[in-house]
Amino acid sequence: MEPVFSSLRLLLGLFFMLTGAVKFSDCHTPAQVYEHVKALVMKLAEVLPLSLLGYEPDPEDLLIIIGWLEFISGLLLAMGPPHLQEISTIVLTLLTLGTLYSLLMLREPVASYAPTVLCLGVLTMLHAHACYIL
Length: 134
Known about the structure:
mainly alpha; globular; 5 helices
């Protein structure tokens, strides 16, 4: 069963590395894809619960911060040691929960939740498996 979880960690890590790279590198991605992601993050920044704490993040900075967090966490999830994989699973789970919250607040169509919910389910499964092993 361990090869299955190792494969899931590798694939999910590569997925988050790719999505993170799209967010922070506008010169290496097609302009159309970057603009779509940028527009989505602009909308998500409006409903983030950080405003309740009195912090209004700049959407451009938020795009770069989330991109780097996803990229580094994805890298650690795919190729890091077990303890760092667990930390990256927690960070990616929190980012995914923030995305899901934002999609719910924006009342996006249910079909747009599918990738987020799928990633959240796999991350939860990886976290539960790591807790069982450690």
